[in-house]
């Protein structure tokens, strides 16, 4: 049975509430296999770095076309561990888009470095290469920080403009750490997310395109040296079976039970991505000329963690959709420099990020949404506007 047919069978009635995310329908599809996977772990008892973790790492690396994959405790930890492995430290500047989840910049602050906020392109919601060049030039001119790395974020599942950002990085001798927390399964040209930068961090938070049943994440990299450093850092700085901490580390491993769950979900991941893209195409068509939608550049495919529209008067539209019992999300209501935690870090103008924070609204796009439900969302948005 296709996912769309299974979802239709589970939707109690087409007029019921529509959730922004619906993990219960997915669980109904996969429950037997997931329970069997968990049971295997309970039986062998290797709860930390068991065989499922190693198998998952191999399969994720192969899927993404990356040389190495190291499974870790969350997307936020993946970013921080990657920065530690890259030896990013106090006095270093890391260029982060101003319109992203707080964890992107928090990881930079947690290694003692300074996030420098870069504006985004309104149409794609991703880092603006032109503003990145301006920000790098400003940091160089001021001379207080050492420009070290760029952290593009693949917002809502859409890969950032790695071609343009890569050229800027090469010109300025900067490293790139991709925040691919939302975009595992995304594509740019003939490459998948996880192999679009020398090192990438992703998240398996339950509502992500590939999600586990708790916190989880992974680092994918082309560099054997970075992979080795990441493996040590996620396990208290130890290498192999040695008990000596060779460097500072943390408790940063993915649990074996979460790996077992992810192995089951990886089996159906391509089918789920296809379903997310079908729904996205339905929205794109049904809402054409009605609202602005995140633009997907030619040659790129989003993983559609979220389907996001932009409307002035967004809060009014959200209230109307709430009234129709249609779940929506505000990702994000604040740009990074508007969070109290990051107030001290910015002296740059970030108009596109501020505008998006006022105008974005994310619609349900999970794989178990029915065509009928997607059409109800389209009708409700059209009626409200
Ligand atoms: C862009 C971005 N970066 C980082 C993270 C952090 O991931 P996690 O919640 O797994 O720590 C998230 C997820 O929520 C995210 O959306």
Care to describe what's here?
This protein is an alpha/beta fold and 385 residues long. The protein folds into two domains: 3-23 and 269-384, Aspartate Aminotransferase, domain 1, CATH 3.90.1150; 33-266, 3-Layer(aba) Sandwich (Aspartate Aminotransferase, domain 2). 42% of the residues lie in helices and 14% in strands. The chain contains 13 helices and 13 strands. The strands form three sheets. It has a seven-stranded mixed beta sheet, with helices on both faces. Helix 7 (162-172) links the parallel strand 4 (146-150) and strand 5. Helix 3 (51-64) packs across helix 9 (256-267). The longest helix is centred in the N-terminal third of the chain and has 22 residues, at 23-44. The radius of gyration is 21 Å and the shape is globular. The two termini are 36 Å apart. Pyridoxal-5'-phosphate is lined by residues 74-76, 100-101, 103-104, 153, 179, 181-182, 203, 205, 215, 217.
| Secondary-structure arrangement, i.e. CATH architecture of the largest domain | 3-Layer(aba) Sandwich
CATH topology of the largest domain: Aspartate Aminotransferase, domain 2
Residue runs with pLDDT of under 50 for 5 or more positions: none
The top level CATH class name of the largest domain? Alpha Beta
Mean pLDDT: 96
Number of helices: 13
Q: Provide the gyration radius in Å.
A: 21 Å
Number of domains: 2
Shape, per Cα inertia axes:
globular
Count all strands and give the number. 13
Biggest sheet layout: 7 strands, mixed
Beta content = 5-15%
Bound ions, cofactors and other small molecules, one mention each: pyridoxal-5'-phosphate
CATH superfamily of the largest domain: Type I PLP-dependent aspartate aminotransferase-like (Major domain)
Give the proportion of residues in helices. 40-55%
Q: What is the spatial order of strands in the main beta sheet? A: 1-9-8-5-4-2-3
Coarse structural class: alpha/beta
